[in-house]
Structure to design on (936 residues):
């Protein structure tokens, strides 16, 4: 533990001390299950720590090797983890199929990909490090379901109630299950292979034994629902994989629906990509050159210094550079505290992302205020920022050795910024109509004024709102 | 040599084979001094290899550890090396003094910083690895002078003629030189400390012994001049440093001036910064965050895809991304083959630098052609490039974890690009009046048309030329 101790003292130096202390306490005292796939937002709420600080602390802990970061593709319907990987680079299939829900999903980074943290085995050994040895309920809790499901403490009892029977099936082995089928929808589910088979049990009860056999292999083939009659069933199961399987016969009942409907916020891949600490620590090494990952909604904020060219000419390139760099520093700080990230700068322009429009609007208002204190040494006037904000779908890509974003939304955001005059913040409809953002504007006593504007290269005119 | 043998195998895979072989032959067969501070341009000319390929090959060789890259600050007057370092980060003084020329110079990356390559001691041991054991003439040849001085074959004989006397002075020791001063301007200079004393020998010859004592220490005292009479001099020299010194008396006559006037082209820091292979291999690790290095003349080329926003709307973000990326690939190749480098891309815009305007104009013409072919292979696409070119002074800086450029010149270049319409190339006066660029345009039968255009944010009108 001495190596881990050293790492914790490094962690305390690099992140918020309270968050570091909470993580250290977690690793020291929490039960094993609380250290597998930690839901950082839940951890923050339970410990009364600011979410951004908790995310930043876990990212540093992962960078130090105390935790391992995992990118899990979720089934949005059942909340199960369809695929888990140490890097977003492995999220490279156009579609992920949930056998249980019999549905395929495009891996969009907003809601389908979660990021969790599992303690490193060198920092603490936990049962989930050998998932094949976890008991059934714990396997479902720690491996099968994502951190989006708020599972009850008595999960084993609930599973007891909603399953007819379940067995542990070592690799290569066979087993026979004999049971009585009730007249309802039941399904056979193995959480390891995700193999699922539905049975519609209806009609006249029978005393005749019905027999079925299933083999688990690595292929996830969708299967049609099989009709059976209430009565005795003999289920022969064979595990053809090289891992232990945990097949069980589940009852599709309200209790199960209730279990799955208890959701809690979780750390999405999108939120992590637009986090400044993540960008700083992981850089371009997140996405492969050939990946293009969809994000349904990301908020883009562009800024540009007004009259900067004039300024360069007046004070000279050297002085102007120092001034521009100092203003970048101010903007960076504001963006980071509003949970955003700077994607890049170009000249004296900045491109930043936020996970929601309200944070971008809050950042823009703070930027405008901060620029007051920024005096142009020549004229004594404050520097003026032109700010544009837009929200919409985009692609997360790697361009020019940098994790970047691409698409119409990015273009429009840049064009909206182009229209901005001094001191005005321009935002599009989706931004000012976002509930959080419109709330914030109301509280600040600001009323956005719409103008129909033509954007260069954009087909239709669109409403652009000026935030006075 | 087996480790080096492996490295050469790697070099042949990563660099152009002809250049790799020439470097291997150099390391195997050349005399020691030809492996110290190699002038890559001179090497390319002698070996009959394209300069860009030679630069690329040496950069790969340095990356593999076969050579060590060195950044040397040169005196523009005498061509001596004022400071040398393995990284440009050490070029951080506002001014460098040349004691020999008794002048201070602000470092600019155009002509004042050269880049040379010295063979690594693990690959081949050469005398210059222990510079303090080099004989007098070799110290001047290999250490004191920059690679821009074309030292003649009869250098040793020439030294005999120019140098009145010289002595090897071990650390801490004193020496007395007795000699006859001719009626010439004589320079006492030590090439190790650069300590210099001017002796203005004139007037009536005397038979009386004149005495002078000089102390060399690490504090380089400003160069002074004493007036002496032709006749006997007793010169007392003291070495208060911890290295061997090589003080000598040089006659500042025609022979010395002829020697210093023999110049040859050399690899400048500017040329390396704007080389694509260098950018790819060394990335942002070239300049410190707080450095701002002046470049007197750099050529900037900006491109933007016309109608890209419509393209995104028509074909969707995913397909548009692939098209935009493919077009970047085409641009990158053209930029690299014209000795330029892509600094960054912003959306579908690219910013590139070139050492001289003619290479940028050549690249622009080829880009326009290439887009024509690009559209034909993608039937129906009508992607047009808007190109702007400008040349002028700028600062080399690090911004946003990337080696970047800053200043009015960059701004003007971007604004000129923004004025461009489809298929036109816009360039400023300094670009089209550059002799080679002019020749290139003439031979291509293109006549630039002057248009006086006001650039947004730029005070004066700038002469902008349209290259049809």
């Amino acid at each position: 533990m001495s190596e881990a101790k050293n790492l914790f003292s490094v962690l305390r130096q690099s992140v918020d001390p309270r968050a570091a202390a909470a993580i250290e306490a977690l690793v020291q005292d929490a039960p094993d299950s609380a250290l597998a796939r930690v839901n950082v937002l839940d951890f923050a709420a339970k410990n009364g720590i600011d979410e951004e600080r908790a995310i930043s602390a876990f990212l540093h802990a992962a960078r130090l090797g105390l935790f391992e970061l995992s990118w899990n593709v979720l089934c949005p319907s059942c909340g199960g983890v369809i695929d888990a990987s140490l890097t977003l680079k492995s999220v490279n299939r156009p579609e992920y199929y949930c056998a249980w829900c019999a549905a395929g999903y495009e891996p969009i980074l907003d809601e389908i990909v979660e990021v969790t943290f599992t303690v490193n085995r060198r920092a603490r050994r936990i049962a989930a490090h050998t998932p094949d040895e976890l008991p059934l309920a714990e396997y479902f809790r720690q491996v099968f379901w994502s951190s989006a499901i708020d599972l009850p403490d008595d999960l084993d009892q609930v599973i007891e109630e909603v399953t007819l029977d379940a067995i542990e099936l070592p690799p290569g082995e066979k087993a026979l299950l004999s049971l009585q089928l009730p007249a309802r929808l039941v399904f056979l589910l193995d959480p390891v292979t995700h193999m699922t088979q539905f049975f519609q049990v209806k009609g006249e009860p029978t005393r005749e034994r019905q027999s079925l056999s299933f083999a688990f292999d690595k292929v996830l083939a969708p299967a049609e629902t099989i009709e059976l009659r209430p009565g005795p069933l003999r289920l022969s199961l064979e595990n053809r994989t090289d891992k232990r399987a945990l097949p069980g016969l589940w009852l599709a009942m309200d209790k199960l629906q209730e279990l799955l409907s208890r959701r809690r916020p979780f750390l999405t891949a999108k939120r992590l990509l637009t986090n400044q600490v993540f960008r700083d620590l992981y850089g371009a090494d997140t996405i492969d050159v050939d990946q293009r990952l969809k994000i349904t909604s990301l908020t883009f904020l562009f800024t540009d210094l007004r009259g900067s060219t004039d300024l360069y000419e007046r004070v000279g390139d050297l002085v102007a550079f120092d001034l521009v760099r100092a203003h970048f520093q101010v903007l960076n700080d504001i963006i980071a505290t509003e949970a955003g990230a700077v994607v890049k700068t170009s000249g004296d322009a900045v491109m930043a992302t936020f996970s929601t429009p309200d944070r971008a609007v809050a950042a823009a208002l703070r930027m405008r205020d901060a620029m007051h204190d920024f005096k142009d040494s020549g004229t004594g006037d404050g520097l003026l920022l032109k700010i544009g904000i837009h929200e919409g779908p985009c692609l997360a890509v790697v361009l020019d050795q940098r994790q970047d974003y691409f698409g119409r939304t990015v273009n429009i955001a840049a064009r909206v910024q182009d229209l901005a005059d001094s001191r005005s913040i321009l935002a599009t409809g989706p931004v000012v109509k976002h509930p959080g953002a419109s709330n914030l504007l109301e509280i600040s006593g600001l009323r956005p004024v719409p103008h129909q504007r033509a954007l260069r290269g954009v087909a239709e005119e669109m409403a652009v709102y000026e935030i006075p | 040599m087996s480790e080096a043998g492996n490295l050469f195998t790697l070099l042949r895979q990563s660099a152009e084979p002809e250049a790799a072989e020439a470097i291997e032959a150099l390391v195997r067969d050349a005399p020691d001094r030809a492996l110290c501070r190699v002038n890559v341009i001179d090497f390319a000319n002698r070996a009959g290899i394209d300069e860009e390929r030679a630069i690329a090959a040496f950069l790969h060789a340095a990356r593999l550890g076969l050579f060590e890259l060195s950044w040397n600050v040169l005196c523009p007057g005498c061509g001596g090396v004022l400071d040398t370092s393995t990284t440009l980060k050490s070029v951080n003084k506002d001014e460098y003094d040349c004691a020999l020329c008794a002048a201070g110079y602000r470092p600019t990356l155009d002509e004042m910083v050269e880049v040379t390559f010295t063979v690594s001691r693990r690959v081949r041991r050469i005398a210059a690895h222990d510079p303090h054991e080099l004989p007098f003439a070799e110290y001047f040849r290999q250490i004191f002078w920059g690679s821009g001085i074309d030292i003649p074959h009869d250098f040793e004989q020439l030294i005999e003629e120019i140098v009145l006397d010289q002595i090897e002075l071990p650390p801490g020791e004193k020496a007395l030189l007795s000699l006859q001063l001719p009626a010439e301007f004589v320079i006492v200079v030590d090439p190790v400390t650069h300590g210099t004393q001017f002796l203005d020998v004139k007037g009536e010859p005397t038979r009386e012994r004149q005495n002078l004592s000089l102390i060399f220490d690490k504090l380089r005292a400003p160069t002074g001049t004493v007036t002496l009479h032709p006749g006997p001099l007793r010169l007392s020299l003291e070495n208060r440093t911890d290295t061997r010194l090589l003080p000598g008396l040089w006659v500042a006559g025609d022979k010395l001036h002829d020697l210093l006037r023999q110049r040859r082209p050399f690899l400048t820091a500017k040329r390396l910064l704007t080389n694509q292979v260098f950018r790819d291999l060394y990335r942002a690790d070239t300049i410190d965050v707080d450095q701002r290095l002046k470049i007197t003349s750099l050529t900037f080329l900006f491109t933007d895809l016309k109608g890209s926003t419509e393209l995104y709307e028509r074909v969707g973000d995913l397909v548009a991304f692939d098209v935009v990326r493919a077009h970047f690939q085409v641009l990158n190749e053209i930029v690299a083959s014209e000795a330029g480098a892509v600094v960054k891309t912003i959306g579908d815009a690219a910013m590139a630098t070139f050492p001289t305007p003619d290479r940028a104009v050549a690249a622009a013409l080829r880009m326009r052609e290439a887009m024509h072919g690009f559209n034909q292979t993608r039937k129906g696409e009508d992607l047009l490039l808007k190109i702007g070119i400008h040349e002028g002074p700028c600062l080399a800086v690090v911004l946003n974890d990337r080696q970047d450029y800053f200043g009015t010149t960059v701004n003007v270049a971007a604004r000129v690009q923004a004025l461009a319409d489809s298929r036109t190339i816009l360039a400023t006066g300094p670009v089209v009046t550059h002799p080679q660029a002019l020749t290139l345009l003439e031979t291509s039968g293109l006549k630039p048309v002057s248009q006086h255009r006001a650039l947004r944010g730029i005070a004066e009108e700038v002469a902008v030329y349209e290259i049809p």
About this structure: Chain A touches chain B at residues 283, 292, 307-310, 312-313, 317-318, 320-321, 324-325, 328, 342, 344-347, 351, 393-395, 397, 399-401, 406-408, 410-412, 414-415, 455-459 (CB under 8 Å). The domain at 286-467 of chain A is CATH 3.30.70.1230 (Alpha-Beta Plaits). DSSP finds 15 helices and 21 strands in chain A.
